[in-house]
Amino acid sequence: MSKANKNDKSRRKFLQNLGLAGVSAVGGSALLLQGCSDPKDSASGKKVKVLTQDNQLVEVDVANLKPSDNIKDLDYLQDRGREGIPGKKFVMVVDLAKCKNARKCMTACQSAHQLKPEMHHINVLEMNDPVRKTSYYMPKTCQHCDNPPCVSVCPVDATFKRQDGIVLIDNERCIGCRFCVAACPYSARTFNWTEPKDAEKFAEVTYNMELNVPQKKGTVTKCAFSADRLREGKLPYCVSACPNGVYYFGDSNEDLVTNGTTKMTVRLSKLLQENAAYTLMPELGTKPSVYYLPPRQNKG
Amino acid sequence: MNYYKYYKSIILICLCFLAVANANAQSDWEIPEKEQENVSFIMFDDDMILEGSIAYENSCTSCHGTPGQDDYMPMAPSPGDLASDQFQEQKDGTIFYKIKKGRGSMPKFEDVFADDETWNIVAYIRSFNKNYKQPIPDLGGIIIPEYKLKLDFDENVDKLVVKVFSKEIPQAEVDVSAFVKGMFGKFLLGKTQTNELGIAYLDIDPQLPGDAEGKLHIMVKASKGYGLAKLNQKMKMVQPTIHKSAIEGRHIWSTDEMAPIWLKTSFFITIFGVWTILFFIVIGFYNIKKAGREDLH
Amino acid sequence: MNDTLSKEILTDEQIDQDLLKNINWGNKFKLWLAFLAVSLIICLYYYYQQIEHGLGVTGLNDYVSWGIYISNFVFFVATSLIGMLISSVLGLMNVSWVKPLARIAELVAVAFAMVAGLIIITDMGRPDRLLNVFMHGRVQSPIVWDIAVVVTYVAISILLLYIPLLPDIAICRDKLKNVPKWQHKMYKILALGWKGKAKQFKLMHNYTRILLVLIIPIALSIHTVTSWLFAMTLRSGWDSPIFGPYFVSGAFVAGCAAVIITMYFFRKNYKLEKYITIDHFDRMGRLLVLVALVYVYFNINEIIVPAYKTNTADAKHVQEMLSGHESIMFWMVQLGGLIIPFLLILFRPMRSPLPLMLISIVILTGAWFKRVLIVVPTQLAPYYPIQNVPEKWTHYMPTIPEIAITAGSFILVLIIMSVLAKLFPVIPIWEIKEDIHHNKN
User: Fold this and answer.
1) In a domain, C133, yes or no
2) Is C152 close to B293, i.e. CB distance below 8 A?
3) Alpha carbon distance A33, A39 (integer Å)
């Protein structure tokens, strides 16, 4: 181990928890930021404009980008946003039995994505259960379908599916025809009918497709599975914000999903199988990437 | 009827008293002096907090709720919010002791969690206190064993073989836990102890998808007393999986570039064909003009 | 044999005089045009507001994100389809009575199709990015198909209006002496040196024939593709394989009504009673009965089939129409705008010009609301409940700017038709002459 030769004095102070987690976390996110499989290839040659804390524009090699960097290079962000994260296929599991309508997900999402109160990337609906004569709460996001009807109809490639399964919107390209809004059977999309919230505040921000901020008047917006956070190896905003352990999120290629509240990681296949998971309206053939675990019978 | 009402209010008042008394219950809980001074020998870090949060969510949330949310159960004595100043005032050793021993409706977790796991929970609770400074333990005079780990995979029985040594000598009865590293967290493969040969075996599900070479990113932790070792290694254990891109192939929903060939060709042939005819007719205007002039002679 | 023309024998001079009469810039017309222009400017002001403040000035919302703009677009595309039916289908079948009406039908087609293309721009959230459709167009998107076919249809319709107009433009060039200089120059250029030579006629006939054949599939596809904007989605009420023919049959009803109304006003204003006869109205009335019958048939299919299946989302959609929120509008449109007018036209007196024109206005109004019924209710019944949004998002009511912009599209159609009718004869002079010569012999 690299820290085996630490001097005795510091060891007396504390037994370091041989910081594997720390090292691997940093390594992991650097790898994702770079978007290429070999983190050791430290000089990719591609330079990107970054705004430093003292408001200076500097050029940084793509390989040396840090998650906190304020990237000012629209072209780079656009390319990266369309490219996606190789080797991943993101899925979400929503455990309806645990949802208590705390709506922390909705708040976190709206503040992250510069949304007005009536605009929802995620919307917790009160659903009627016709069989049990009760109601349950159902958070509804974009389903990131593997056969996305919204993407099919887009006339300009403004909404598209990435290799990691995420369906994104490029609001620099969107013409605002709202065909995708009409085509989505899950009503997952929302539109900037007027000037977005805090438009002046975001005027200088470089558009990041993965966050879809700054929002633009006359364009469509929707859940992006927090693609910006995934790039840093973090869970989506809504998933981390939930106090009730409703959300699991992960990479189906790993067959592992992590609960946003407990941070417990479980096998996706097992979770789905043991809890009789279902997807929304499978009969439409949209193949959603969001799974639901059924609500509990005697919920208060 | 009136009597009944009376009765009810008396009960209510009694309950209120009880509640007030219970609010103080925390401070009434006497902890031996020595236990109070107990501190963690390991510095709290993100990894401990993460594991602590998992343990907390599974064993504590049902009564204590999520720290900072004030969503604990209305019980007597009150569990209280763990992020509150009142709770955070307590010493690490006090919290550690309370988790271990329990009292009344607070269960005893001594047999559930090993000491290091209990400290994980303390670390998690402390992560809600911005002003918290971890007390520095005095490790003077304590011999800290240095463990070395060696990992192997027995493909005949699908087991991860963990060997724990200290100075080349196999160590028995060391707690070993192994995880698979996922993108957002660690998947627990299992917890066990080394046998007298210093070897621990952990089951590996061959169905687990590996990378393109069938490797899994394994994280192993071994601890006993003050001794702690961790190892992080990619090992060939399962079937290789080729990760397909979600946008492979030509579909109606693909980008224009990857549009189905039949659609692209039929669209462009039709448009091209029709416009060629229109173009031909517009060119024909010239013929009409010419025809008018020709006959002039 | 053309028995719809009035029996009296008309001389060539008489015909020229009658049919060129409309080409003058009288004060009455100027007043009319000024009125239209002022109205259009008011509507444009509202469009400016929409550009400035976003589509939020409309009654649209995240659930009903397509409203009367799209309904109006569908209506315009529908109405423009009549050009194909009258000039092409009936023309190719040598139905000679439609000949004097072909140009009117083409005028209606050109005006409505051109404005349809503009309406779709008013519905865009980012009209400034219109070019993206051409730069980044996705061949899989029905919108791209729609734009392609609408543009093609406009082009063919213009050619089909223009080419048979050549001999008449030449007449204008030769006979109209007291027109403004630019107008005379325009005739000279547009006439393409027309001398009425046999070869010129032959070329004209050839080109027209090609266009008449070509316009059939294009016209069918323009409205079929427009129906696909809805049918290609997975929404209940839209997800229907018969939407194409359903829309096309509806289009003929709206188009016939529009042509009848146009005929009536041209006839009255330009004193064309000898050329657009009562018999023409009678026949157009019968044509309207025929296409309305086909449309009723498709309506029955569109309603009965899902309604039979009691519990699907489609069935619920139909229930909403038959007895739910939308029922008043639905029955007004179906009974008042289609069935009753259709039954009335069955009686001969109702096919005389004035009653037929009035009935056509009712049918056309019904047809417009029918498009709203196709577009809006489906969106008000999404698969998942409408919650956590302002209460007004659970229904749809167009706002004043929205109505004004829509009205603007109609004004634009009136302007185009009025101006074209002032520049060119609305009845093909040379064909009338040809017909009369033919009859004489």
Assistant:
1) yes
2) no
3) 10
Would you list which residues of chain B are within 8 Å, Cβ to Cβ, of chain C? Answer: 252-256, 259-260, 263-264, 267-268, 271, 274-275, 277-278, 281-282, 284-285, 287-289, 291-296
Chain A residues with CB-CB distance to B180 below 8 A:
256
Say if A228 falls within a structural domain.
Answer: yes
Q: Which of A223-237, B141-155, C376-390 has the lowest mean pLDDT?
A: B141-155
- Provide the residue ranges of all domains of chain B, joining segments of one domain with +: 2-126, 148-236
Give contacts of A 213-232 with C, CB under 8 A.
216-220
Chain A residues closer than 8 Å to B186 by CB: 265
Tell me which chain C residue has its CA closest to the CA of residue B281: C207
pLDDT in tens, B197-235: 999 999 999 999 998 899 999 999 998 877 888 899 999
Residue A32 has pLDDT above 50, yes or no: no
pLDDT (mean) for C224-236: 93
| Cis check: omega of the bond before A214, within 30 degrees of 0 | yes
Q: Is residue A54 part of a domain?
A: yes
Distances in Å between the Cα of C330 and the Cα atoms of C68, C241, C319 are 16, 21, 11
Contact B292 C148 (CB under 8 A): no
Q: Is the pLDDT of residue B53 over 90?
A: no
> What backbone torsions phi and psi does residue B161 show, to the nearest 5 degrees?
-105, 115
- For residue A12, being part of any structural domain is answered with yes
Distances in Å between the Cα of B209 and the Cα atoms of B204, B240, B242, C243 are 11, 7, 9, 46
CATH superfamily of domain region B148-236: SOR catalytic domain (2.60.40.730)
Contact A193 C55 (CB under 8 A): yes
Phi, psi of C351 (to 5 degrees): -95, 10
Q: Are strands A290-293 and A90-95 parallel, antiparallel or unpaired?
A: parallel
User: Which residues of A are less than 8 Å from B252 in CB distance?
Assistant: 152
Q: Is the confidence at residue B21, as pLDDT, over 60?
A: no
| Mean pLDDT, chain A, integer | 84
- Is the minimum CB–CB distance between C205 and chain B shorter than 8 Å? no
DSSP C351: G
Inter-chain touch B295–C193, beta carbons under 8 Å: no
Instruction: Tell me yes or no: is domain B2-126 CATH 1.10.760.10.
Output: yes
The tens digit of pLDDT for each residue in C277-314 reads 999 999 999 999 999 999 999 999 998 888 888 777 88
What is the total count of domains within chain C?
1
Residue B149 pLDDT grade (very low, low, confident, very high; cuts 50, 70, 90):
very high
Residue B15 pLDDT? 56
Same fold, B2-126 and B148-236: no
| Chain A CA closest to residue C51 | A218
The closest alpha carbon to C122, from C227, C44, C231, belongs to C44
Q: In this structure, is residue C132 part of a structural domain?
A: yes
Residues 6+ apart with CB under 8 A from C275: C5, C6, C18, C19, C100, C267, C427, C432
pLDDT at position B28, please?
72
Q: Could you tell me if A162 lies within 8 Å of chain B, comparing CB atoms?
A: yes
